[in-house]
Amino acid sequence: MRDLKQLVKAYDVRGVVPDQWDENLSRAFGAAFVQVTGATAIVVGHDMRPSSPSLSRAFAEGAAARGADVTEIGLCSTDQLYYASGKLDLPGAMFTASHNPAQYNGIKLCRKGAAPVGENTGLADIRELVQSWINEDDTVDVPSVDVKPGVLTQQDTLRGYADHLLGLVDLTSIRPLKVVVDAGNGMGGHTVPTVFAGLPLDVVPMYFELDGTFPNHEANPLDPKNLVDLQAKVKEVGADIGLAFDGDADRCFVIDERGEPVSPSAITALVAVRELARARANGEPNATIIHNLITSWTVPEVVAEHGGKAVRTRVGHSFIKQEMAETDAIFGGEHSAHYYFRDFWRADTGMLAALHVLAALGGQERTLSALTAEYDRYAASGEINSEVADQAAKTAEVRAAYGSLEGVKVDELDGLTIAGADWWFNLRASNTEPLLRLNVEAKDSAKMAELRDAVLAIVRA
């Protein structure tokens, strides 16, 4: 019998189609989602992967069989699904495997108002219920229930999504900008033309054709090799900025006019300044900004300098969203280029972050590299993965080597973080793979490299 713990992760459902799951199992997830949440109506959308339409429809059928009315919004980005969940006030399901290769697919689930569904907020219950419906021969037998079946209807939410975002950022008076956008054959090719239409932008499109086989490069901008084409095009056409979206277009990476990546920490700081200014103008001084523990020290420094309160959290969207709800934070950012906005139901939207960057750039005359230089104060290693058989033992070795040094601070909010006067590093174990993830930051490149190499020597010994 198949074990759904291999398919249902901490924050979503994700696996290979049809080896790990198919339409029958998707139908069961639809039924279980309705049963666990008690929803009487839901909204469902999907990305451009070849398996997405049939998996999405099967989920909708399973939900309807449990009595829920289903609004199908069809092709959409993940943040467009969050918009629909928030605007319609319905629980939602987005069929996507984000940046994973073509053979993968998955489901991101939320309650009404785009509130996250993770392992501790319903996903484990859904998994266990579906598991109980799987027979020894791996067939799926969903018990029938005596309810009136729900109705499936279709609705287009793209224009409403675009209008909502454009109502949060004023781009009407910016100077004209040349913008190269790499959609990676993902859902950015669906959303960008509508959101950017009518703005003073000369858009140079790259890989806008929706193609879930990803013929040009993986739709994962976190991997530097997938930014090479965009970096070259920005320099070739003399663009002011480059934007790269991942497969489901909920993350956005930024390239400056030199073809150099702008760190997500710098983007977090830039957007935080803008959101804090907007909050002050609306009579909300000292607003809260969320950042995860791997973002640069620059972020809390900038937040404090602009009168805000910075709150540090664990890595992961469920932790960010929970902290945002508890603190009423106006904005949150992660090192992985997920950006969260209170005015977007506390959900993550790379598109709204991109609009903020365009507004900031177009509202003054400096280049993007000059604009973001003040938000780039330290040298960072980026995330470095090491395959390790015993993650706990290696982490303990690193703690023993650095935790007793004079003047250092040690915390275990998420993995192991050790900080000195002008440096810090974090070592975290992957939830799904035998990996340790290292992030290092220091006052200068030499110190960062020295510390990075010394910690890696222990981890990889």
Automatic annotation (TrEMBL):
One GO-annotated biological process of the protein: carbohydrate metabolic process
Domain Alpha-D-phosphohexomutase C-terminal: 383-456
InterPro entries membership: A-D-PHexomutase_a/b/a-I, A-D-PHexomutase_a/b/a-I/II/III, A-D-PHexomutase_a/b/a-II, A-D-PHexomutase_a/b/a-III, A-D-PHexomutase_C, A-D-PHexomutase_C_sf, Alpha-D-phosphohexomutase_SF
Record key words, sorted: Isomerase, Magnesium, Metal-binding, Phosphoprotein
Alphabetical list of Gene3D superfamilies matching this protein: Alpha-D-Glucose-1,6-Bisphosphate, subunit A, domain 3, Alpha-D-phosphohexomutase, C-terminal domain
Domain Alpha-D-phosphohexomutase alpha/beta/alpha, residue spans: 6-131, 160-259, 270-378
Superkingdom in the source lineage: Bacteria
Family label: Belongs to the phosphohexose mutase family.
Protein's name in the database: Phosphomannomutase
Species whose genome carries this gene: Kitasatospora kifunensis
